[in-house]
Amino acid sequence: MANALFENGKEGFLDGSINWQSDNIKAVLVDTGAYTPSIASNKFLSDIPSGARVATSPNLSGKTSTGGVADANDVTFTSVSGPSVEAVVLYKDTGSASTSRLIAFIDTGTGLPITPNGGDIATAWSNSSSRIFRL
């Protein structure tokens, strides 16, 4: 599967329920062997089985949205262990997996897949014109 925005995430940007600049946005490392994404029907973090969520980042910082392009500071996942990671999913963190809206599915990043070994995993967002994603 190629990088994509979840339909519910796009809806959230359009109806104002997701604010890239002010909301708590996090990234989760995902094992696609335990999760098959559905861009059209997956809506919330709870749609990704807990066993497929390998590690979660702190809130993204340094977020920008110039020209419809989302970007943020690179993020480091600390002390990651568990199954292999084939994707990164961005979501709006509400504090509850059943209401935390999925935003983007990224599986074509440099270094993916990766097998955690208990160390840190540094994620560097793309420096291309689309950065993390483009609306």
Write up this protein:
The protein has one helix spanning 7-15; strands at residues 4-5, 25-30, 53-56, 69-70, 75-77, 87-92, 102-106, 121-123, 133-134. It is mainly β and 135 residues long. It has one domain. The longest helix is centred in the first third of the chain and has 9 residues, at 7-15. It is globular and about 40 Å long. The chain starts with a strand and ends with a strand. The mean pLDDT is 94.
Count the DSSP helices.
1
Amount of beta strand:
15-25%
Rg calculated over all Cα atoms: 14 Å
Structural class: mainly beta
Mean pLDDT, nearest integer?
Answer: 94
Count of the domains? 1
In short:
The chain has 135 residues and is mainly beta. Helices cover 7% and strands 24% of the residues.
Summarize the helices and strands and which ones pair or pack.
Layout: E1 4-5, H1 7-15, E2 25-30, E3 53-56, E4 69-70, E5 75-77, E6 87-92, E7 102-106, E8 121-123, E9 133-134
Antiparallel strand pairs: 1-7, 2-3, 2-6, 4-9, 5-8, 6-7
Task: Summarize this structure as a short list of keywords or feature phrases.
9 strands, two-stranded antiparallel sheet, 5-stranded antiparallel sheet, mainly beta, 1 helix, 135 residues
